[in-house]
Each structure stands twice: as C-alpha cells, then as structure tokens.
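Sequence, please.
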C-alpha cells in the first residue's frame, strides 16, 4: 500500500513537471553547437626545411610576407662552386654536340678504313702463300730466304726449308685472321656502331648532368610550391651568409592561398552525421565569427592509435582574418546545420525538470516523456535540438 502511494505521488510529481515545462521560452535556431573542440589551424600547405649540409648559406629572401612562385631559389650553399659546376656541365654538352660527335664519326670511319686495308694486306699474303705451297719451285725459293741464325752461334745453322705443310698452315692462320676482320667489318663503320658509340657518350654526359643536378637540388634551396618563406634562425646582418649546422631547422615554407582547421572526431554520434552539414566556427571576443566548411576526412596516427580527423577550410573572405590563428591550437565550435528549425534547450533544464525520466530512459525517450510529441533532432555536449 505504501509503495503504491509513493508511486502515485512520484507519477503525479513528474506529470506536474511535464505540464509546467515550457519549450516556447527557448530560442528557435537552424543550427546546434555540438561541442567546443581544440582545432589545429594551418595554411593549406606547409613544409619545414632542414639544412642538408653544414656551411655558409647565402640567402635571397624578399620582404616578409612576399608570395613567391614555385621554383624560386631562396638560399644557396657555396653558390660560386654551384655556378662553376653548372657552367662546366653546360660546356660539356656543347662540346659533345659541336666537337665530340663529329670526331667520333671521323674516328670510326678511320678505324673501319684501317681494318679494310689490313684485310687487303692479309688477303694478299694468304694468296701468295697458297700459290707458294702449290709450286715446289716457289716453295724452295721461299725456304731459302727463311734461313735463321740462332743467337750466340758463330755460323749459321744447317739449311732448313719450310715444308709445304708449314706454308699451308701459315696460309690457314692468315685466312682465320681474315675471317675475324670480316666479322669486325660487319659492325665497324656502320650506322649501328655510330648509334651505340654516340649513345655511350650521351649516357656518360647524362650521368654528369644528373650528379650536378642532385648537388644543385641539395645545396640550392628552392620553393616546392607557391608560397612564403619564413626564416627560423635570426637573419644575418647586412646580407652576410648564414652559418648553419647539418640538420638545423632553416625555414618554414607556407602556402596561405587557403587556410584550414583540423579537429578530431571522437564521438560516435558525430561520425554518423553527414559531414557536409558540419561547420567549424571561431567565435573570438570582439570580432566577427569565422566559419569554415567541411572539406575532407582523414585518418592520422595520434599517440600510437589511429584517429578520425575532419578538415575544414575557411572561405576566401575570412582568409585574412583567419591567418593570425595559424601555427597552433584554438578552441572552435563544431556546428551542425539542422534539417529543420528546432528549439535549442540546455540539457540541464530538461534533467532538472524530470531527473528520473532521463536517468532511466536516455535522452530520446526522456525528451518524448517531458515534451509529449517532441522529437530529438540532434545531441550536443550541452544542448539538445528539439522539434516540438
């Protein structure tokens, strides 16, 4: 009996609270602030440049804030040496075109002509030996001219003639040499030889050009994209070279053509929202709010775990005002654009109106109980969007 009485009194109390909850005193809006989140604000592109070597760096920097085109050289290590190497490889290219290539063709033609002359001489000698081997009289005459005196002997050795077999063998060796020369002449002096030898010279020069280009790319600092250069160490006085150690931070290259803000999306209920309905807003004191629109999502590693991050971009009209925010974290509002106007009601007001309803049933059922016929449209950290 006592329990029934308490239940009746509790129900009457809740019913009375429901009846007295007036949604009309809360503003109607088309958006809901889901949360205040720390956002990283940065230019659309940013690169930190470290020193590739140690030495004196000659700077070519304009006034701070000047936007430079991609490829602009803003610093050089040992510029005189880099200039000499560039001129040397350019000269080598000119010499290849105007001197080495014509000389190559001349040398190859001369080699082919010498081989042809050598072949003609060998063919003449081989023919002569063949005739000698076939004529005994000529063989005897040839043998008489081939007498030799051994070193250290006081008189010539016994007369010995080259036999027909030896003469034939000598002729055979000459014919073998002729065949080898014929194989070489199939290649020597031909367009194919010219092509390959020319290619060998080109590759040798190309290797030198690549080596110089690598040094230029390493020791001549250029902008990888259109942007601004901000020197990290104090600039030297009177335009003198800056002495830097290997690996030292030299500069930040930043592209301020667009400014973006990144926020982690950790709440599950936010991830199911269409991100095109989200905005990120900076509401600084004494200034007009700056609003950025959703651009893309990405997954990045933070403290050893993967984290979903939304990237927002400020419109061009807010770019100048948003620039001072870059380089650090600022607190920004994650705003949801609602599909229909709604009453924006603090959570605490609803909880105080009927604590038991929200403790036992959750937000959606609690709203339906406290405000009959109402629908919960969106849930923020401190407020609810309710369609009565």
């Amino acid at each position: 009996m006592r329990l029934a009485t308490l239940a009746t009194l509790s129900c009457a109390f809740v019913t009375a609270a429901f009846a007295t909850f007036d949604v009309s005193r809360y503003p109607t809006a088309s958006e809901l602030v889901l949360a205040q989140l720390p956002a990283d604000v940065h230019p659309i592109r940013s690169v930190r440049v470290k020193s590739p070597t140690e030495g004196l760096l000659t700077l070519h920097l304009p006034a701070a804030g000047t936007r430079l085109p991609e490829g602009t050289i803003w610093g050089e290590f040992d510029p005189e040496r880099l200039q000499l190497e560039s001129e040397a490889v350019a000269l080598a290219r000119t010499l290849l075109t105007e001197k080495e290539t014509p000389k190559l063709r001349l040398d190859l033609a001369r080699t082919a002509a010498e081989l042809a002359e050598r072949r003609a001489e060998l063919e003449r000698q081989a023919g002569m030996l063949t005739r000698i081997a076939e004529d005994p009289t000529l063989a005897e005459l040839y043998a008489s001219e081939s007498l030799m005196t051994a070193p250290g002997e006081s008189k010539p050795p016994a007369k010995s003639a080259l036999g027909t077999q030896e003469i034939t063998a000598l002729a055979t060796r000459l014919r073998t040499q002729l065949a080898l020369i014929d194989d070489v002449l199939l290649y020597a002096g031909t367009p194919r030889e010219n092509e390959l030898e020319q290619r060998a010279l080109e590759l040798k020069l190309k290797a030198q050009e690549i080596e110089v280009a690598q040094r230029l790319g390493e020791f001549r600092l250029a902008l990888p994209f259109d942007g601004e250069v901000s020197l990290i160490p104090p600039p030297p006085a009177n335009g003198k070279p800056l002495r830097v150690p290997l690996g030292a931070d030299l500069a930040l290259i930043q592209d301020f053509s667009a400014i973006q803000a990144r926020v982690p999306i950790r709440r599950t209920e936010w991830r199911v929202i269409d991100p095109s309905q989200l905005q990120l807003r900076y509401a600084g004191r004494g200034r007009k709010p700056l609003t950025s629109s959703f651009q893309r999502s990405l997954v990045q590693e933070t403290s050893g775990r993967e984290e979903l991050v939304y990237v927002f971009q400020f419109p061009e009209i807010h770019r100048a005002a948003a620039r001072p925010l870059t380089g650090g974290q600022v607190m920004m509002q994650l705003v949801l654009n609602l599909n229909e106007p709604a009453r924006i009601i603090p959570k605490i007001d609803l909880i105080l109106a009927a604590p038991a309803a929200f403790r036992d049933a959750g937000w959606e059922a609690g709203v339906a109980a406290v405000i009959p016929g109402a629908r919960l449209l969106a849930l923020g950290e401190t407020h609810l969007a309710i369609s009565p």
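Confidence is low (pLDDT under 50) at residues 1-19, 147-161.
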